[in-house]
Structure formats: C-alpha cells, structure tokens
Automatic annotation (TrEMBL):
Gene3D superfamilies: P-loop containing nucleotide triphosphate hydrolases (3.40.50.300). InterPro entries: HR_Repair_Mediator, P-loop_NTPase. Keywords: ATP-binding, DNA damage, DNA repair, Hydrolase, Nucleotide-binding, Nucleus. It comes from Mycena albidolilacea. Its main location: nucleus. GO terms for molecular function: ATP binding; crossover junction DNA endonuclease activity; four-way junction DNA binding. GO terms for cellular component: Rad51B-Rad51C-Rad51D-XRCC2 complex; Rad51C-XRCC3 complex; replication fork. This is P-loop containing nucleoside triphosphate hydrolase protein. It is found in: Nucleus. GO terms for biological process: meiotic DNA recombinase assembly; reciprocal meiotic recombination.
C-alpha cells in the first residue's frame, strides 16, 4: 500500500461530518475516508437521502484533507499523532498509565480484558474518579451488564460532591444492549452537562448469555457497537470497556483449530476486535502471574492496530496489601 493510500485509510470520524450524516454513512457501509472513492456526490446524496450540498461538502473535505496532509505521513502516524496530542485521563494505575503513554487519550476507547479476579473493576473506578476530578463540567455514564459495579459501591467510593454527575444503569439482555447502542449517540448529544466518559462493564455478557445468537446476528450487533463508538467518540466521549477472557484453540502453525485438531490453547478477549474502531482504540490484557502480581500487555493501539506477539509492550504490576489498584514494583 502506498503512502497516499495509507493516509486516506482513516476513519470517517476524522472529517467534520454532522453526527446524523456520519451515522448514515456507517449504516451504508462506509468506514474510512478512502471508502468515499467508490462513490460521488450525487450518488452519495441518493444513497443516504441527504441534500446534494451536504454530500458535496463531504467530498470537498475529503479532497482538502488529502491534498493538505504530508504524503510522507502514514495512516498509523496520523492516528499516533492524534492520540499523542489529545488531552489524557490519568488511570491512577501507574503501569497502565505508562503503557498508554501517560494516560488514556480523550475521544479514545480502552478495552480492559482479563480473567476473573484481575482488577478490571478497581482500575475502572480509578479512571472514573480521575475523570470526575479533572473535568468538573462533564458527566460519567456507567452501563453494567453483570452487576460488577454496583450503585452502593459507587456511593462509597465516589466523592459526594461528584456523585450527582455519575449515572449508573444496568442491562442484562441482548435486546437491551441493541437498543442502548442505537440510542446512546442521541442521548450523548442531548446530555447537559456534557457526557464525557462512558463505562461499558462486562460488555461480553449479553452476547455470551444469548444462547441462540447466530454468527450473522452477532456480527450485526458488533458492527452496531462499532458505529456507536465512532459516533460518540466524535462527540468527545471517552470509553472504557471491560471484558472477560475466552479460550481459543490453535493448530501447530498458529491457525484456528477445534478440540480435535488443536495443538495448544490461548486466552483471548471474549469479544475479539471486530467491535472496536481500530483508529481510536487501545486493547490491554491483564495477565496475572501470581495472586497479587502480573503484567499489563498492550495488544493493539491506534498507531499499531495489529502487532506480532514478540513486539507486544508489557508493564509489570503488583497489588500491595490494603490497596485496590495495581502500582509499579518500583
């Protein structure tokens, strides 16, 4: 792929598109700036049922953005620059902050995955407290699917003067998750004060609990989640997702396998990467090596959406006695 192609392979959210138009583009199958090359202003206006001037404005932005950007800059460099320049939210977990380059960049997505017993919930609460302290004019929405973050626990942990800016909701079923993903962008647009942080706790659970879910239906749900994340990130919302692990069987050559053909098993995040917009997402795996210690492993980041196993970044953590959050061994 040449440098110009890499540059234009950016998410549509990098353009200044009205949220309603962005949503229509995503529903029509457009994901990147480069996807616009398969259409023209007149055809896009017809496909999306939008005024022709609105369609022409999209293509005008696309041409200006491509013409004005340095051709020596790759798409991964653009994503890396965006993450590096964005204001950051301290996670209050020093090894994780170090792994993320100083904290979680605003308008980005952090997926935290790990087996039961790892401090996903404690880290999430640390991020919420940090966000509330640093952003007194913004709200936090916590959507819990498995009762991992209870309202009573939040009342004990969140300072009383900040608690009014935290909304806690519970959903357990797949239909509830589908409705939530479809309505959240409009909720975020109307929220006053502004919604700034979204927590999706145990996002895997509604899909895992739906026993009759077909592969096609699951892919549709994941695509809807991806579109929702793109839309709310474009509105300035930062997202933290927690998820459990699943066992994946591999053949000797590393290809997917079954119980009959598998040579080894590895633990991977339950949902996989399909629902995450790679240009704005960090995927971190919590790998315990003892009861109170382990490593954080960076599976992917905006500048490197796909990494080889040997190049994955890691940071060790230790959970001291009487402390909830992991800290560096130093």
């Amino acid at each position: 792929m040449d440098q110009l192609s890499q540059l234009t392979n950016r998410p549509l959210s990098s353009l200044s598109i009205p949220p309603s138009t962005l949503s229509a583009l995503l529903r029509a199958g457009y994901e990147t700036v480069q996807d616009l090359d398969t259409s023209n202003a007149e055809q896009l206006a017809n496909d999306l049922s939008i005024p022709l001037p609105s369609s022409q404005a999209i293509f005008s932005q696309r041409k200006t953005q491509t013409r004005g950007a340095p051709l020596t800059q790759s798409a991964s460099a653009v994503a890396s620059s965006s993450a590096a320049s964005a204001p950051r939210i301290a996670t209050k977990c020093s090894p994780l902050d170090k792994l993320l380059g100083g904290g979680l960049p605003r308008r980005h997505v952090l997926e935290l995955s790990g087996p039961p017993g790892t401090p996903k919930g404690a880290i999430t609460i640390g991020i919420v407290k940090s966000f509330l302290k640093s952003n007194p004019d913004e709200e936090v929405l916590i959507m819990d699917t498995q009762n991992m973050i209870t309202a009573s626990a939040l009342r004990r942990i969140i300072p009383q003067d900040a608690a009014r800016r935290v909304s806690h909701h519970v959903l357990h079923t797949l239909p509830e998750l589908v409705v939530f993903s479809q309505t959240l962008p409009s909720i975020a647009a109307a929220s006053r004060p502004k919604l700034g942080l979204l927590v999706l706790s145990s996002l895997h659970f509604p899909l895992q609990a739906s026993k009759k879910l077909t592969i096609a239906a699951k892919n549709t749900v994941l695509e809807n989640l991806k579109q929702m994340l793109v839309q709310i990130a474009s509105r300035g919302v930062t997202v933290v997702v927690t998820s459990q692990m699943a066992t994946k069987l591999l053949a000797a050559d590393g290809s997917p396998a079954t119980f009959d053909t598998g040579a080894r098993a590895v633990m991977v995040p339950q949902l996989g990467p399909a629902y995450l917009p790679s240009a704005i997402s960090f995927r971190v795996l919590i790998c315990p090596q003892a009861r109170d210690s382990g490593v954080f492993r960076l599976l992917s980041e905006p500048s490197k959406p796909k990494q080889g196993v040997s190049s994955l970044k890691e940071e060790p953590y230790t959970i001291p006695k009487r402390r909830m959050l992991p800290i560096s061994e130093s």
